[in-house]
Amino acid sequence: MARMSEPLVVGRVIGDVLESFTPTTKMCVSYNRKQIMTDPDVPGPSDPYLREHLHWFVFVLFKQKSRQSVNPPSSRDHFNTRNFAAENDLGLPVAAVYFNAQRETAARRR
Fold first, then answer.
1. 1-31+53-110 has which fold?
2. Entry pTM
C-alpha cells in the first residue's frame, strides 16, 4: 500500500498536514446525496472574498486504540491536524484522501 501515499506526498498533504505514514487500509469517501460545503466567512466576516475560491479537503482516518472520546478544539482558527492527533492520542493515520475544489467561472459552466 506504499503507492497509496504517493498522491498525498505530491499534493503536499504529507508535509503540510500530516507526518509521513504508511497507509494500512484503503479509504473511499462517498456521499449518497448532494452536499454543499461553503465557508462564507473566509478569510473573515468583514471581507469574505475567498468564500467560494480554491479549497482543498483532507479526510484523515485514525484507528481507535479503544473506546475513547476526543476533545474538540476550542476554536477552528489555526486548527492543526498533527496537534489534534497528539492531544487526543490518536497515533498515526491509517488512511487519508484529499481533493481540491474550485469554483468554475461563468464561461466554463455548462
1. Phosphatidylethanolamine-binding Protein (3.90.280)
2. 0.65
- 14-29 b/e with 16+ CB inside 10 Å = b? beebbeebebeeeeee
Task: Give the CB-side neighbour count of residue 1, counting CA atoms within 13 A.
Answer: 10
- The domains of the chain are located at 1-31+53-110
Strand partners, 101: 55
Contact 57, 101 (CB under 8 A): yes
pLDDT digits (tens, 9 = 90+) for 31-63: 777 666 666 666 677 776 666 666 778 889 998
